[in-house]
């Protein structure tokens, strides 16, 4: 073999070896890339699930860090545990503080890989970009950090999809056609999901969320700058919670859009919240109607009257189905058991009676009271009954055995209304002494004392989640309060005379009040706006109740004289 041939063979061998090494390197790199993609996809899937749980992400632009911790805690308490922080100077400190609250925090508007690295080091769990930023996207892929790259056109969507991204940020959403524009862009790519931000607000968020490919939206309206500046984090938390209820499609769905009222003109009435029209009158009592209550399924209406009876009416026809006869004095309140099988009534005759709602027969009587009974209610689980008499004591009974299990004597004057919290752990009371109190049932001790009205408190009621309280007073106002701190939230002023009661709707989005001025009013619970006045009774309205709608079960309730 000639030297030339040997040289050629050696070169070929070297080339083959180099090729083999290169091929092995490619295989290794491919495997390494595949492993990284699997880790990234796992992290992305976790983020997507969290976004689907909250549906709305507060987008925060903070200029300093001094309020970051309190702001994050307020949002988490309001239900928003996923937060996006715009990456600005001092953003790292904000991310670090917010992450310590338990929030799942991400960094937005990240422009460089260095910013992404800094954000993640500070605690960011995900990254969002304004556009298809390859530098940031590659860094996130390499470090298994979920990133939501921004897109605005089909070309950008296709490019992002080819690069392995399945969740994209549609930005700026409103400037690019809003929900209609997003639908047009997203429909050809059913395997992709979207997170629209930029111009999303309370007015259009449901339009975005109705699109099947939208996992969540991002918005700045959830944390108003004026509340942040004034450090009113309690109100911010409450408003966040109310927003979350709207987001989840609960507001207006947990009620049938109807309210029942009771009046001393001897009638009860059913009203449309939307129009204010009286839909039905319940005629049959011979004296004042003191209170009304819907059965948990919304099919029956109970009325209590000073004619010494309680009646059950069919809500679809107005026909009286059952009359409960047995009290020897005026009946002040009627309250359904959680399963709707029994009706609890409290009377001036110093007894509480339990009735079968099918037959109207009295099953049991609690007759151990020395004074008039103002209120008797079941706990949400049906295992307890609370009674308030014409003194300062509230007694809690075992509902099955009718044995006293607790006595709460925290008020200085008579108690008018009582209500259990949704978890059966707390009791809310309203008293002639001008206060409402939230007491722990197990110990009987006060947890929160609410004061601020200029007259008696006739009624106090929890919101369905027990995070807020509404009070009704002889000063002509209703007020809402934080049930966590006791701090005031909203004033509901508009009645011309004193208020008898106030209550939240089953979804917590609305409040109804009843007044001596002869009207009931329906208010928005988030901002205190009066949306309807129900005017038609010939005398003052003693009570009002929201219909829960068909086949819905109430989780909490309240009662009182």
From TrEMBL:
UniProt cross-references to CDD domains, sorted A to Z: KDPG_aldolase, WD40
UniProt repeat feature WD, residue ranges: 259-281, 282-323, 324-365, 366-407, 408-449, 450-491, 492-533
Family matches, as InterPro entries: Aldlse_KDPG_KHG, Aldolase_TIM, KDPG/KHG_AS_2, WD40/YVTN_repeat-like_dom_sf, WD40_PAC1, WD40_repeat_CS, WD40_repeat_dom_sf, WD40_rpt
SUPFAM superfamilies xref list: Aldolase, WD40 repeat-like
Keyword terms of this UniProt record: Repeat, WD repeat
PANTHER family: TRANSCRIPTION INITIATION FACTOR TFIID, TRANSCRIPTION INITIATION FACTOR TFIID SUBUNIT 5
Protein name: 2-dehydro-3-deoxy-phosphogluconate aldolase
